[in-house]
Amino acid sequence: MKQLLHVFSAASIILGMASCANGKKLQEESPLALQEAYYTTWTGGVKGADSGFSLFIPAEEEAEVKLDSVYFRGRKAVIEKSGAAENLYVAYFKIPSDEGKAPDVIMHVDPKKEYGNKPPQLPEKIPFELEEGEAVVKYTRNGKEKYFRITGIKKKDTVDVEIKKPENIRH
Q1: How far from 98 is each of 8, 12, 90, 104, 146, CA to CA, in Å?
Q2: H/E element holding 56?
């Protein structure tokens, strides 16, 4: 009887740990009616300026679903409702101009002279394995965090993206 109790206890602990391990379960279907998502790249236009890319997610708005953030191309960004177009969500991914470059480091025999050196900033590791053209969106519904995957994201040239308010462009 005592041995049966030990086996039951061990099985309960293992099952409990296994259910906690899969906290970020992806849903197969989107909670919103999505159209084709796409991204564009951009640059700052002057030497030393930042660059990046923007992810556009056309989706029908639903009151109980709040899009929070997105994981795309190895990065994470906040999703915002676009002011230029109805039913369009945008995430802006900024790539600093100094990313990938080694910082200036003071190397000296006296460790006190190296005081101002900063440790390298490692990029945040995203918790999902994504293929090219895939993104994972984090959203909340009824106070619970959930995730869904978007596939088939294609790059569009900036000139291919329809401009909603051309009066805001200065030449």
Answers
A1: 56, 51, 24, 11, 34
A2: strand 51-58
Residue 46 sits at φ, ψ, to 5 deg, of -130, 160
- Rounded to 5°, the CA angle 125-100-44 comes to 105
Q: What is the pTM of this model?
A: 0.67
Residue type at 63 in one-letter notation = A
Q: Tens digit of pLDDT per residue, the chain (171 long)?
A: 567 655 556 556 665 555 444 456 777 778 888 889 999 888 776 766 677 888 999 888 777 888 899 999 888 999 988 877 788 889 988 877 666 566 678 888 888 888 888 877 666 778 888 889 899 999 998 888 989 999 899 988 865 555 455 554 544
DSSP 34: B
